[in-house]
Amino acid sequence: MKITRKLIFAIIVAFITVGIAGACQAASNVMNVEQAMNEPDGTNVSVEGYIVGVPVRVDHVEQKDFTSNYALALADDPAETQISKMIFIKLDSEYRAEYGLVNHPENMGDFIEVDGTRDPYFSHEGVENVTSIITKSTSGGGGSGSGGPNGYYDSVEGKSGQALKDGLNDIIDAHTEISYDDVWGALRMTDEDPANANNVLLLYSGRSQSKYENGGDVDDWNREHVWAKSHGDFGNAMGPGTDLHHLRPTDVTVNSSRSNLDFDNGGSSHHEAPGTFYDSDSWEPRDEVKGDVARMIFYMAVRYEGERSGEPDLVVADYVGTSGPKLGKLSTLKQWHDQDPVSDFEQNRNEIIYNDYQNNRNPFIDHPEYVDLIW
């Protein structure tokens, strides 16, 4: 057969076409975690997901205080806590130094793609014989938080202690302030019930209630200052008194019962707020919002440091029965922060406040690890 330039050109085109088709097919074969978990054992897979911890046995995944570099848990949701929705990735020696969470806890929350063989690990759905890991996006060390907008926290990278606290204050200090009257409308958006757009979710009771059943009557909802306004004497003034990052809708009588109590465990059950306990010097919210409360308190202590005229210098104290610009109890709030990780509801709330109202963020929702780095 005579080889002509036309034939050579046709062969080259054919190779290119096959290559492109192969690449497209490979790209289309990347699965999410749920899809990969349903693949049969022995199948070669490419799976992408968020790093959500370290599996150390079939029924336990470490999501903090990591003790092993030998595996990762991936999930489709960066805030996932249910092991049944995770796939375990066995890390052979060549990947442990770069991806093991003991060495690099800041990788928690990163979005990665893994190539390997679908085989059980710890008798759980897993991937072994890994041939490739690619980091597709990073959380910036955000743990189960979102990490925030690109570049938002760049100025505090590598900092800890007072330097981190001061740096975060510089980032979130200058923001739009709204009036106390405008808080009503804002809470209708920030605390909207995901299951019913006509309602808001009340913080302490968990009740879903009409957005417009607000006011001062029994069973209305009103504007709760989670950092009690008497702890700093800021009242309803624009700034700390109207900062949406610590204002939440609550039942009127439940709000009255909370008053200006510090936060701690124990007490008697509140009849209108299931799972909530209180006594003469402390208030314990239901488990589902313990972390929310803690992260709001940590935000206030970083945002308000007395730098601006008339603003208080707020401090989280490690005791109850506080007075002045202090609120407790630090050690309990840290436990609640760990016990109740950042939720989708919190992340959505943070985004709405940032984009639609104040143009600043709660750093402890974006980067939960900042709590231990400061306190």
UniProtKB/TrEMBL annotation:
<feature type="region of interest" description="Disordered">
    <location>
        <begin position="134"/>
        <end position="154"/>
    </location>
</feature>
<keyword id="KW-0378">Hydrolase</keyword>
<keyword id="KW-0540">Nuclease</keyword>
<dbReference type="InterPro" id="IPR044925">
    <property type="entry name" value="His-Me_finger_sf"/>
</dbReference>
<feature type="compositionally biased region" description="Gly residues">
    <location>
        <begin position="139"/>
        <end position="150"/>
    </location>
</feature>
<dbReference type="InterPro" id="IPR007346">
    <property type="entry name" value="Endonuclease-I"/>
</dbReference>
<feature type="signal peptide">
    <location>
        <begin position="1"/>
        <end position="26"/>
    </location>
</feature>
<protein>
    <submittedName>
        <fullName>Endonuclease</fullName>
    </submittedName>
</protein>
<dbReference type="InterPro" id="IPR045939">
    <property type="entry name" value="YhcR_N"/>
</dbReference>
<keyword id="KW-0255">Endonuclease</keyword>
<dbReference type="Pfam" id="PF19886">
    <property type="entry name" value="DUF6359"/>
</dbReference>
<keyword id="KW-0732">Signal</keyword>
<dbReference type="GO" id="GO:0016787">
    <property type="term" value="F:hydrolase activity"/>
</dbReference>
<dbReference type="Pfam" id="PF04231">
    <property type="entry name" value="Endonuclease_1"/>
</dbReference>
<dbReference type="GO" id="GO:0004519">
    <property type="term" value="F:endonuclease activity"/>
</dbReference>
<feature type="domain" description="Endonuclease YhcR N-terminal">
    <location>
        <begin position="31"/>
        <end position="133"/>
    </location>
</feature>
